[in-house]
Structures are given as structure tokens and as C-alpha cells.
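Margin note: ligand = pyridoxal-5'-phosphate.
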Amino acid sequence: MDFQRYLKEYPNAEGRFGSYGGVYLPPELEPAFRDITEAYRTICHSSQFVSELRRIRREFQGRPTPVYHCERLSRKIGKCQIYLKREDLNHSGAHKLNHCMGEGLLAKFLGKKRIIAETGAGQHGVALATAAAFFGLDCTIYMGAVDIKKQAPNVARMKILGANVVPVEHGAQTLKEAVDAAFEDYLANYEDTIYCIGSVVGPHPFPMMVRDFQMVVGVEAREQFQDMMGFLPDVVTACVGGGSNAIGMFTAFLADPVEIVGVEPLGRGGKLGDHAASITYGEKGMMHGFDSIVLKDAAGEPAPVYSIASGLDYPSVGPEHAFLHEVGRVNYEAVTDEEAVDAFFKLSRYEGIIPALESSHAVAYAMRRAKEMQTGSILVNLSGRGDKDLDYVIENYGYGEKYKDFV
Ligand SMILES: *Cc1c(COP(=O)(O)O)cnc(C)c1O
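Resulting structure:
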């Protein structure tokens, strides 16, 4: 495949990456999604939009975020060098703000008054509430009542930022019901509202739009690494939940002679229900309005999933990842909870960087590969910081006494 022309050709006009992607919506919503697609295609090329987004990234988000060489960690493992793209230093502590600011600016350009979304663990809700405060937009976040109880700090952040957090109190009262509630709201209010999806998932144009907004990560990192070293890394890697931080990193390297690896959460192991490694164990299927790879139960319905990292526990994956897997350009590997926790403590102790448990999966894979390779270099997208995970980690793993030694 010729990846020089990749961005021009994928997705196609129907929002397809090969046989994945597309748009499956209730008929009432089709015009609204067509409007967003149309508007985005025009606006994303306007110099006013592009220069405003650049200014926001520089002045509000603190971009570009640095690329950092983990000298001590690398030396502990051997001769292969590990580098991090520091999205944990992006304002609000993770890569998610990259697409939320893009979606907020699009809402502003379209003259909308209100942005809405669902959230599971609350990370997307916090990033979107941040964008809403910046742009002066109303913000409503749907969240399962069960999740609201578990994620008090993120609920507090959203409220302080001025968002209206609506508890969803039917069914299992978690993410799936929150998605349904957000869709219902959008159906009733699409004239003055935009529904902002939190990853490269959902119906077209969201997988494309969120990718385009996240691409800044890889474009910056490629140039920074090249400036530092004079060549490109041998391996580029990132964790994959829905896949937004990974696609943002990978896109810039698709046409390069660089190995690209997406890291899925293997949780407690390979049994259905114990992990969320959708590409590793899933099959073709449709959910939430797009074709992709889905983890299914015996009845063919989306299976229950689990990961220590709540940002990674989704039973499907962005359609572009399913495609890049199918054509063999990106490899997908899986990392267990235990390996992720080990990487969490080692990166903290040897580099002074406490990573999010999601990002710890990518660090764990880099450590595994560095040990095998014993030469060359690996660039990791460190998608977010770990402050949000401290209480959970301390309660379950103490202060990491057991995770000091390199073997
Ligand atoms: C939400 C989140 C992820 C997973 O989302 P993707 O769309 O797969 O990137 C990864 N890391 C962090 C820090 C997150 O908050």
C-alpha cells in the first residue's frame, strides 16, 4: 500500500477505511451528521480555523509537548533507548484535550451554543468541560450513576468547570446507558448542539475528525525526534482503547520505515470478560454506529470487558485501527494489568514521571521490546499523567515495593 497518499484516500466519502467505519444512525440524525461532515470539510481548510487552533494549542494547551529520553530506565533494561512523547504535559493532563479543543472550535465556527457527551471514567467529560469553559459554550455530560459514585474527583472537576453532569439511572447505569442518553439528547437538540465523541470511534465523520485533531501529536513527535537524533525511531508505540492517542501518534509515521505497534489491555488474561483486547480476540461486527472489530459474547452481543485502566475498557476499537491491522501496517500486542502496574512504578521511580494506567500499557510494551531488541530506539506516546490513578494503585498495590527489580 502507498502510504504517501493515505490521508487523501482514507476514509473515503462514505467514511470507510476499507470495509470498516461508515455511518449507521437513526434516520432523524442522518442530516445532522451530514451537516457536521460538510461543515468540517470546509472549515478545516479555512486559514482562520487553522490559525485559531494553532494559537489555542500554543497559548492554552502548552503545545508542543516535549519528547523526552528515558536514560535511566533504558540503561536499567539494556542498550535500546526509550523515548516518551509527553502528552501528560498537555493541559489537563492527557491527549484528550487535543480533540476536545478541536470539537469546541468547530462548534463555535458552526454557531452552536452547546456541546454534549457521555463519559465513563470521566476523563473525556473533564476534557470537554475544559473546552466548553474556554469557548463559553454550555456543556452537558451524561454519566452512569454507578460511574458517578466511583469517580468523584472527575465529577467535581466537571462541575467546577461549569458543566452540567446528568446521572443516568437506568439499566446497568454505566457507559452504555450514558451513550444512549447522550444520543437521545442530541436527537432532540441537534440544531443548537454538537455531540462530541471522545475517541476515534462512532459514526463518520468522528473517526476522521478526532484523528485529524490528534495528528498534532505524531507530527510534533516525528519532527522533535528527528531534530534530536538525526534519524527516526525503530519502533513507535501507544496504548489503544478507542484508539485516539495511538492514531494521533501513528499517522505521521505510516509512510516511514518504522515499525508501529498498538498496545491493547489484556487485563487479568485471555478469557472473555477478563480483558478488552478487541483486535487480539475480537471479530468483525457493528456497534455504536460503525463497522469495526468487536468482542462478542456467545449470543453475538458486545461482551463485557475489563481493564485496570478504565480508559481502555471498550469492547470495540476505532475503524481505522481495524483497517491498519487488516492491511498489516500496524501490529497489535497485548499487555496485562500486572505488566502495566510494573511499568507504572518503574517509570515513576526511575524517571520521576507518574504515568496514567492507560499509558503504562504502552510503557510496559516498550520495556518488553527494549529487552528483546537490545539496540535501536522506541518512541512511546505517554498519553496522560497518573494522578487520577493514585488512590486506586495505593489501595491495591501499596507503594510498589514489589516492583523495583529489573529481571
Ligand atoms: C482515555 C484515555 C486513553 C484511551 O483512549 P484512546 O482513544 O484509545 O487514546 C488513553 N490514555 C489516557 C491517559 C486516557 O485518558
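The longest strand covers residues 259-267.
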